[in-house]
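Weekly structure sync, notes
Attendees: PL, DS, HV (note-taker this week)

Item 1: Cytidylate kinase
DS walked through the input record. Source organism listed as Stagnihabitans tardus. Sequence as pasted into the shared doc:
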Amino acid sequence: MSFTVAIDGPAAAGKGTISRAVAAEFGFAHLDTGLLYRAVGAKGGDPVQAALTLTPQDLARDDLRSMAAGQAASRVAVIPEVRAALTAFQRRFAAQEPGAVLDGRDIGTVICPGAEVKLYVTASAEVRAHRRWLELGGDAARVLAEVRERDDRDMNRAEAPLRPAEDAVVIDTSELDIDQAVALAFEVIRQRLSN
Ligand code: CDP
Ligand code: CDP
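Item 1 (cont.): predicted structure, written out as tokens:
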């Protein structure tokens, strides 16, 4: 029996932080699916070919966390053939025992619609941009503009747009610190594990 936790939401909402804590607490494997799209965007050339031939080395590049890599990821992520090329790997990962947590944009809606737990982690654009700015520095107004641009592209694309699954539990972290957000996620998962 495997147990899948799907965590979706916009940039810098706290998905990765919550995912890593969940993986450690429950002994689950964790896949940051954004890294797949970042690697495809960074590889250059034909994005569909890049997605079909993605290697572990592509995922280990040290420039994947930059704002530019996030923008490039969201541009290739609108291409249906790119998304299709990455689907089987994500679903296989989700099916492993004893469980897996995947974070991204379309995990609860498209990749794992049958996930045992679905969380939609969000926060105001201002709070999220401030968090990204603390991590990466740069011009604060520009970071906010880029976060908004990426939100807009992710939410309004035709294929697998970012939105909460109907059965997702929404966690707004705008006024929560990491410990509070993680505690809420643990509570939802424990409740589901116990029935
Ligand atoms: O994975 P995602 O882009 O959604 O966000 P993250 O990488 O988990 O979090 C982005 C930044 O916000 C990190 O530096 C976290 O430490 C911070 N954070 C926070 O300050 N408060 C929270 N409740 C969650 C995350
Ligand atoms: O860490 P952050 O939330 O800023 O971004 P990310 O999760 O690394 O995702 C980068 C970009 O990849 C997103 O803005 C989406 O355009 C795309 N993505 C996606 O389309 N579907 C996913 N499951 C994960 C990421």
